[in-house]
Design brief:
Rossmann fold, 5-stranded parallel β-sheet, 5 strands, binds adenosine-5'-diphosphate
Length: about 210
């Protein structure tokens, strides 16, 4: 099995991470999405979901026995202690599942993959995923895009943004900083240039362009 390099992609909520991650994918780079992994470890019928119910009670379950993410989200966004409890359940399970996916990609012969996560610097993981790509944007644009994407009001958007790392911490940890203030096409061009720089830096062939 060849060694595989996993580089990081992070940024605040609604910064444009998924847009960049989708671009990397379109250029043939597998992306392990921490959000998706986090959903998988508490999917219906998992031991992870049982642990969440043990901590928060049956009120976090929907009628069909799956996790009611909205109820849980409201509980943890409003309460830092509840958030810490939930993170204590999910983060170790996410780490195990991420490692399993990483091994599967390495076994499949991929030399390079991306780990996309909103919380990465916050968890002290920046150095585990070098080079680290950070997507950043000014707060007013972030609030606007978040409100529009998730259909929430400005106060709720502000609360969710405040629950994350400060942009200053993120910028300090970045090897590549993408500032997403222009049109989408500009972000995609920056993502392309960044991916080329990463493969160059690692001595890997460049990935084909998206046509
Ligand atoms: P994240 O994954 O960081 O939460 P997304 O990639 O989902 O962020 O982007 C947040 C929202 O902003 C999405 O609705 C996305 O389509 C939109 N968006 C991202 N970049 C731009 C841009 N440069 N111009 C306009 N809208 C954008």
């Amino acid at each position: 099995m060849g060694a595989m390099h996993l580089f990081g992609l992070t940024g605040g909520i609604a910064s444009g991470k998924s847009t960049v991650g989708a671009r990397f994918r379109a250029r043939g780079i597998p992306v392990i999405d921490a959000d998706e992994v986090a959903r998988a470890v508490v999917a219906k019928g998992t031991e992870g979901l049982a642990a969440v119910v043990a901590a928060f009670g049956g009120r976090v379950l929907a009628d069909d026995g799956s996790l009611d993410r909205k109820v849980l989200g409201n509980l943890v966004f409003a309460d830092p202690n509840a958030r810490a409890t939930l993170n204590g359940i999910t983060h170790p399970r996410v780490a195990v599942e991420t490692a399993a996916r990483q091994e599967a990609l390495a076994a499949a012969g991929h030399p390079l993959a991306c780990y996309e996560a909103a919380l990465l610097i916050e968890l002290g993981l920046a150095d585990a995923f070098r080079p680290l790509v950070v997507v950043d944007l000014p707060r007013p644009i972030q609030e606007e895009r978040l409100c529009e994407r998730d259909g929430i009001d400005r106060a709720e958007a502000s609360r969710r943004i405040d629950a994350q790392a400060t942009p200053k911490d993120r910028r300090a940890a970045a090897d590549f900083l993408l500032t997403n203030i222009g049109p989408r096409e500009e972000l995609l061009a920056d993502a392309d240039a960044t991916l080329n720089a990463i493969t160059d830096r690692l001595g890997l062939p460049r990935q084909p362009a998206v046509v």
